[in-house]
């Protein structure tokens, strides 16, 4: 019988995960089927029970369920605990084990792009769920400093406190960044989905600095425009991170790590993004 996997969330019809995972399966000669399943907010527990009963071996979790999934897992990985969110479920006899591959996906994509992190002054814009998953993996790369900035003040402070035992995170609001300089700026806000760029003081990108955006497609445009205006030497969107976090989930499920470049290239209609 063909092994079954799914991505669940709402909305889900736009998800690129089925394309990515089915391409991984073909490339690695795995007999599996990966589908998108619409699961409305408030129905996650029922959906997970149903998928388990139907024999699914693994599930990816996306909005709006990432933060609710941990409490429905019989066990979660240390990195998912730190992130406070689960994006990958692995079937166990009794239920689901939860993991979070977002941070690993980011670091692998930055490495693929040959972006430097070690000894760099790194600024992360935003302090939502994605940032919680990124902090420990970024700190593990030994940046010279890691600053997290948000438009509203309390979440960076909370993150800095929460990760105190892992490493130093400097909390800021966007307005208080004036006068600081960063070698790498990572946009992890969802502002691009509203067609806007957070209000960041000019001059925070160091000469020769690089920019990376977690969003891709049309949502990436405002950050790219800003980064170009700041003179960024390198600018990348988050499509590579999406493919890398998927590859990490695939490796957890199937014990084989798929090659990512071919799938990534097939997702880009042109080389513009
Ligand atoms: N490429 C990938 O694989 C990947 C993986 C995960 C996430 N993502 C993307 O990363 C982004 C963040 O995801 P998330 O899960 O962390 O979302 P989230 O928990 O909803 O957090 C959103 C963040 O964006 C900020 N924000 C929203 N609108 C803003 C605006 N107009 N101006 C300034 N800041 C604004 C919020 O600030 P406040 O706290 O002030 O509201 C918050 O810090 C999303 O676009 C998501 O699609 C990509």
Automatic annotation (TrEMBL):
Top EC class of this enzyme: oxidoreductase
Catalytic residue list: 66 (proton acceptor)
EC number annotated for this UniProt entry: 1.1.1.25
One Pfam match: Shikimate_DH
KW Transmembrane (keyword) present: no
Binding site for shikimate: 15-17, 62, 87, 102, 216, 245
Catalysed reaction equations from the record: shikimate + NADP(+) = 3-dehydroshikimate + NADPH + H(+)
GO cellular component: cytosol
Domain Shikimate dehydrogenase substrate binding N-terminal per the UniProt entry, residue ranges: 7-89
Molecular function GO terms recorded: NADP binding; shikimate 3-dehydrogenase (NADP+) activity
Family: Belongs to the shikimate dehydrogenase family.
Subunit composition and interactions: Homodimer.
Protein name: Shikimate dehydrogenase (NADP(+))
Organism: Solimonas terrae
């Amino acid at each position: 019988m063909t092994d079954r996997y799914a991505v669940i969330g709402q909305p889900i019809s736009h998800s690129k995960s089925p394309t990515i995972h089915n391409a991984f399966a073909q490339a690695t000669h795995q007999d599996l089927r990966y589908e998108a399943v619409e699961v409305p907010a408030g129905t996650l527990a029922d959906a997970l029970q149903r998928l388990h009963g139907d024999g699914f071996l693994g599930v990816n979790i996306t909005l709006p369920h990432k933060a609710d999934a941990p409490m429905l897992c019989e066990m979660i990985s240390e990195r998912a605990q730190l992130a406070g969110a689960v994006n990958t479920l692995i079937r166990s006899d009794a239920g689901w084990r939860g993991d979070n591959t977002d941070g690993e996906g980011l670091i692998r994509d930055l490495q693929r792009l040959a972006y430097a992190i070690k000894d760099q002054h790194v600024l992360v814009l935003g302090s939502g769920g994605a940032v919680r998953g990124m902090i420990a993996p970024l700190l593990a790369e030994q940046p010279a400093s890691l600053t997290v900035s948000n438009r509203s003040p309390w979440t960076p402070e909370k993150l800095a406190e929460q990760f105190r035992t892992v490493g130093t995170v400097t909390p800021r609001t966007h307005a208080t960044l004036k006068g600081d300089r960063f070698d790498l700026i990572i946009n992890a806000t969802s502002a691009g989905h509203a067609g806007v760029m957070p209000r960041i003081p000019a001059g925070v990108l160091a000469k020769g600095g690089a920019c990376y955006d977690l969003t891709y497609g049309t949502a990436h445009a405002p950050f790219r425009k800003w980064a170009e205006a700041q003179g960024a030497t390198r600018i990348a969107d988050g499509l590579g991170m999406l493919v890398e976090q998927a590859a990490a989930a695939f490796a957890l499920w199937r014990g084989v790590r798929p090659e990512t470049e071919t799938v990534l290239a097939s997702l880009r209609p042109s080389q513009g993004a």
